[in-house]
Amino acid sequence: MDFKHYLQVLKEHTPYDFSDYSDNSINRRIQKVVADNNLSIEELLDKTRNDKGFIERLVEGITVNTTELFRDPELWPNFYERIFPMLKGKKTFNIWHAGCSSGMEVYSNMILLHELGLLDRARIYATDISANMLRHCKRGSYQYQFNKKQLSSFKRVLKKSPINGIDDIDFSKYFDIDAGNDKIIAKDFLRNKVEVRQHDLVKDDAAFYNKFDIIFCRNVLIYFNAKLQSKVYQMFYNQLYPKGIMILGNHESLTGFYNTKFKKSGPVYIKTNAFNFKYQ
């Protein structure tokens, strides 16, 4: 069966539309779902039309949920050295993690905001297409061994490039660590801080009425085709305050028209129409 025909069936019988995802990526992932579940084409179509639980698992299989605490450790010192002067002068500020997956990046961000004395001023929002991933985000419970190496890597980076004087972090302040059961659970003050909402970047309008100072959307848009990327960039542009900041993944970048709407400064993209804007 042609995968585009299947995407049309999926669109007609479920709330999900993956037709503007990258062809190679979506085709590969559909084939993997079929193989993992040992389905015939007829069984796949029947489950798509009638099995809501299967659809939720399918969405997880199609979307990419790979994430880690402090993924890309070098990003964070660079990012916060650039934006700390802006944030420390604000009474409140809004941050949106779009495509948050299980929320590990959300917690990474909140930990650093707390270390910088800024968390109380922050309003944190997290969205994802997958209801199951949002449940993971709200629980804040993750595998210890999976993240242990990444936490150690981030500590090494932090010692080389301190953030506003921070050169070490005691993670026991932020997680209850149960190494025997391979589990870490975020403390209540972090879990209660984030507002989670199911949101589909493909189909939905903006998830919130309020504007944002920072939007994270890392390692999501790389799986979209150019048309869909443009739609999402426009949404983010509209949702950002003037001089608001967008953070993309290491392998994602703006091209064409949107290079005139954002100014790149290190790992951040700053909303501006001025070509000579210098971030301060």
Briefly say what this structure is.
By secondary structure, the chain is an alpha/beta fold. 41% of the residues lie in helices and 18% in strands. It has a seven-stranded mixed β-sheet.
- Tell me how many strands there are: 10
Helix/strand/pairing category: alpha/beta
Which of globular, elongated, flat, extended, rod-shaped describes the shape?
globular
| Radius of gyration (Å) | 20 Å
The first-level CATH class name of the largest domain: Alpha Beta
Helix content: 40-55%
Query: What is the annotated CATH architecture of the largest domain?
Result: 3-Layer(aba) Sandwich
Helix and strand pattern: HHHHHEHEHEHEEHEEHEEE
How many structural units, i.e. domains?
2
- Major beta-sheet overview: 7 strands, mixed
Q: Largest beta sheet: what is the strand line-up? A: 6-2-1-7-8-10-9
**Whole-Å distance between the termini?**
54 Å
Strand content: 15-25%
Mean pLDDT, rounded to whole units? 88
Any low-confidence stretches, pLDDT <50, length ≥5? 274-280
Question: Which structural traits does this protein have?
Answer:
280 residues; alpha/beta; 2 domains; 3-stranded antiparallel beta sheet; 10 helices; 10 strands
Description:
The chain has 280 residues and is an alpha/beta fold. It folds into 2 domains: 3-62, no CATH class; 75-139 and 187-271, Rossmann fold, CATH 3.40.50.150. It is built from 10 helices and 10 strands. The chain has helices at 3-13, 23-36, 41-50, 52-62, 75-87, 104-115, 131-139, 144-160, 188-191, 226-239; strands at 93-98, 122-128, 141-142, 175-178, 183-186, 194-198, 212-217, 240-248, 262-265, 268-271. Strands 6-2-1-7-8-10-9 form a 7-stranded mixed sheet. α1 (3-13) runs parallel beside α3. The protein is globular and about 60 Å long. Mean pLDDT is 88; it is low at 274-280.
